[in-house]
Amino acid sequence: MNEADVRDRLRAVEDPDLGDDIVSLGLVNDVEIDGGTARVSLALGAPFSPHESTIADDVRAALADSGLDVELSASIPEDLSADEQVLPGVENVIAVASGKGGVGKSTVAVNLAAGLSALGARVGLFDADVYGPNVPRMVAAEERPQTDGETIVPPERYGVKLMSMDFLTGEDDPVIWRGPMVHKIITQLVEDVEWGELDYLVMDLPPGTGDTQLTILQTLPLTGAVIVTTPQDVALDDAVKGLRMFGKHDTNVLGIAENMSGFRCPDCGGFHEIFGSGGGKAMAADHDLPFLGGIPLDPAVRTGGDDGAPVVLGEGDTADAFRVITENVANNAGVVRRREASEGR
């Protein structure tokens, strides 16, 4: 069996999102036959996403009776050299944003990062919420970053590398920075932190559409953004503003996550829609965006955040809801990366 035979078999492997086979889409980077081994390089860009794992499994199945041992690798060809890339070791940068405060954006960012790590991915979490950096508390990060004066080595919690604006200020000190200072510190952290090789860098942005968001949009190659809202109309109005900000900067929105979707009373068993119903899903439909999932209003989320134990790593309906959102974000990041690879082939 030669390279052409292998490629012909791979035409039976469909991309579950892009609607064609991986050969026609240009998602087979290379095929090399070396003795009894077929080495296949695939243009897959979202490690541990369920859909890309399925593609890899389907490739193995397509070649199962070929008489060849199959070795798979995955990479998206880069247009820029490593020296020209802002974060050369980072595959995907995912921003978690909200139009207003108090909707659980940091909670979603922390659980997304921990959930991706639990899948097996190499993950970093950048708490860029300049004026309200809560991530260290939410993961019980007692260790501080280390530095040799030139580079910063981030600590780890739950397999996630951490950097937070909270590490740069004293305990209980207010952050009183003007726009140029915010731009400078964000840029410096991007350049000086030793993130190493990461599959995903999750960025917890401040609420709203201010200087920090603009700096990140102008500085970093974002794979996409996750918009967090509650079902309440007031939150949805502000979420739309955040959505338009990403649109103006040609940034992909990976979907809408709805927090505080409802409360199930542990005593009576009744389900109470305290902040309304279906607002996040309706917003996603109105703007032709994926709905990533809803997270119930659960006291365990609060205690997990205060105690530094991400809920996604536990059991129960709320943990399952966070895992669904995590998998959907990874799947949608993969769609973005594979579409770019297909269109740029």
Automatic annotation (TrEMBL):
It comes from the Archaea. Residues 3-66 form the MIP18 family-like domain. ATP binds at G99, K100, G101, G102, V103, G104, K105, S106. PROSITE patterns: MRP (PS01215). GO terms for molecular function: ATP binding; ATP hydrolysis activity; iron-sulfur cluster binding; metal ion binding. InterPro entries: FSCA_dom_sf, MIP18-like, Mrp-like_CS, Mrp/NBP35_ATP-bd, NUBPL-like, P-loop_NTPase, YlxH/NBP35. Pfam families: FeS_assembly_P, ParA. Keywords: ATP-binding, Hydrolase, Iron, Iron-sulfur, Metal-binding, Nucleotide-binding. PANTHER family: IRON-SULFUR PROTEIN NUBPL. Belongs to the Mrp/NBP35 ATP-binding proteins family. Binds and transfers iron-sulfur (Fe-S) clusters to target apoproteins. Can hydrolyze ATP. Homodimer. HAMAP family: Mrp_NBP35 (MF_02040). This is Iron-sulfur cluster carrier protein. It comes from Halorubrum rubrum.
